Design the sequence.
């Protein structure tokens, strides 16, 4: 293994899902739903397979039906117009979109600013591109409005002459933070002022609760031309195994990302692209029902974790809850998560893996709530019993 990748080892998600299987624990670690997406969309995939749609190499940029559906979705939800031929690229999940974007845009030695804690593939992809990651840490706020917030001065101070791009993620995994319009505006102003590209991972765009609203960075002044927006069918339609994602951006940025993508996978998952095109056209009631279902599950798990003694940072978005384990008399999230299956029959993720500043992330542990209600109830019972 080369030096760029040596530090990364096996992803925490593989490690913890294996532990869940071997200990027969409830897996609230890796973020995947335990019920599949809409029946009619599964049927659409079967139809595509049967009718020979996409069984051979689909077009490099993605099938026209899906590119058109992605553009229509961005227009309908956010008023963002994209040319499906030059401004949309289909990828093998958001994971490939992240990799191809960073490989295409980062020169060796370039600095990439990422919000810390960051989704684990960001660090590995920045490294593969030869870039240098510069984490800007989201700070925990305790009490009534507990949550992790961006310090805009820290962000501004992190920009140097070597900064190539800002890698933003909202709604944010693992903290559940949804950046506010004011924060997004400040990020946009900074990007314009310092002439930076922005890559924004918005795979949880539909998973926002209560008063929170997801606003794409590309909608802010000066951002449309300098922003690469990443989306995925995995989260929105509960098909994480299909690996269909996409990039929307200005033509020259999409062309750059495509240059890298063509040598990573060339193309991906033909029949599923047709099915996801249909999914993106589902009526608003689908998206509202998804949100309502997850909001109820968030509330169930959040109050259960609080009753079990955790400090809970109630998420405004995503399907993750970050907790602080210090009220339980614990301080090392790694040790806690490795012991939890034995102790309680539950698996969670230590947030420290998402930090360069490991000690800052040490007391935080993430639980996923994209699970059936009875599974969450049983997990809560077990956590309370073991507390
Ligand atoms: N970005 C974030 C923030 C994620 O949480 C995930 C999924 N865990 C991905 C990207 C990857 O998405 P996909 O499964 O579509 O590759
Ligand atoms: N995005 C999911 C999570 O954060 C897992 C993705 C993966 O396993 N690579 O849990």
Sequence:
């Amino acid at each position: 293994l080369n030096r760029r990748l040596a530090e990364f080892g096996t992803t925490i998600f593989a490690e913890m899902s294996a532990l869940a299987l071997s200990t027969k624990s409830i897996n609230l670690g890796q973020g995947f739903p335990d019920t599949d997406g809409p029946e009619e969309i599964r049927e659409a995939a079967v139809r595509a397979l049967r009718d020979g749609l996409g069984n051979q190499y689909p077009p490099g940029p993605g099938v026209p039906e899906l590119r058109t559906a992605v553009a229509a979705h961005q227009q309908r939800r956010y008023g963002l117009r994209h040319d499906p031929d030059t401004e949309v690229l289909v990828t093998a999940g958001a994971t490939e979109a992240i990799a191809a974007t960073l490989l295409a845009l980062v020169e060796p030695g370039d600095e990439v600013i990422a919000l810390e804690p960051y989704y684990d593939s960001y660090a590995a992809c920045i490294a593969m591109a030869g870039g240098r990651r510069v984490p800007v840490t989201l700070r925990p706020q305790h009490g009534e409005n507990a949550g992790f917030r961006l310090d805009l001065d820290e962000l501004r101070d992190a920009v140097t002459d070597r900064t190539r791009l800002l890698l933003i993620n909202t709604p944010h995994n693992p903290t559940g933070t949804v950046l506010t319009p004011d924060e997004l505006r400040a990020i946009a102003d900074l990007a314009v002022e310092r002439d930076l590209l922005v890559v924004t991972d918005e795979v949880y765009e539909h998973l926002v609760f209560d008063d929170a609203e997801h606003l794409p960075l590309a909608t802010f002044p000066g951002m449309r031309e300098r922003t690469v927006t990443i989306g995925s069918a995995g989260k929105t339609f509960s098909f994480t195994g299909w690996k269909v994602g996409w990039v929307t951006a200005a033509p020259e940025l999409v062309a750059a990302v495509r240059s890298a993508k063509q040598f990573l996978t060339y193309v991906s998952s033909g029949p599923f692209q047709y099915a996801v095109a249909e999914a993106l056209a589902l009526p608003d009631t689908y998206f509202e029902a998804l949100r309502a279902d997850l909001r109820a599950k968030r509330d169930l798990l959040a109050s259960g974790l609080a009753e079990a003694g955790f400090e809970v940072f109630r998420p405004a978005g995503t399907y993750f809850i970050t907790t602080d384990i210090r009220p339980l008399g614990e301080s090392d999230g790694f040790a806690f998560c490795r012991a939890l299956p034995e102790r309680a029959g539950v698996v969670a993720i230590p947030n420290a893996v998402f930090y360069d500043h490991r000690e800052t992330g040490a007391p935080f542990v993430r639980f996923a709530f994209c699970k059936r209600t009875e599974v969450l109830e049983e997990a809560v019972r077990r956590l309370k019993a073991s507390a």
Remarks:
- The chain has a mean pLDDT of 97.
- Residues 8 and 220 are 35 Å apart (CA to CA).
